[in-house]
User: Fold these one by one.
Assistant:
Number 1:
Amino acid sequence: MTLQEFSEKTEMDLRGTLERFANMEPMLVKFLKKFAEDPSFQELSQAVADKDYPMMERSAHTLKGVAGNLGFQSLFHINQEIVDAVRAGDYSKIDDCFARDKEVYDNIIKCLTMLD
């Protein structure tokens, strides 16, 4: 899968992200492939399962930052929703947000395995 195809399938802001990476596609691809090694999503999953709201906020905030840097706009916005919900004490939104988060994250990971 080309970087362009990857960006389309993951709703990635390719243009903006490439600008952040000085238009160096090989460097961007290198960092994209490292995304799967980032522990933030697994930490968030555990925090959601444990209803550990402080950890949920931290891990969602970290994942939001990583997603933003790599141009994963959907992942960025969903994790912002989780952070906002935890900070507001509106825990009723967490399960729905996390289900959407997992779907988007899983798609990104699947597409990363096909990225050239």
Number 2:
Amino acid sequence: MAVEVRIPTILRTYTDGAKAVDASGATVAEVIDDLEARHGGIKERLVDGGDLRRFINVYINDEDVRFTGGVDTPVKDGDTLVVLPAVAGG
């Protein structure tokens, strides 16, 4: 199952500068595991203790996965997964 994963600028060091990469999996967790296999070190930036880190937002086709099952949210071939870190400042 191919999923396009859009990578934020701050995490592109893990993807050799790529803005988007392909990954496979039936759930968000499996896609993140596949990302880790292809781009070592990225998983620890996204997940803490099996759940998404509080400051990381993940969207599947514009829907926030926190409201659709978190890392257990199913994904299908052709979906777009967007990783968006929360930004704070003042």
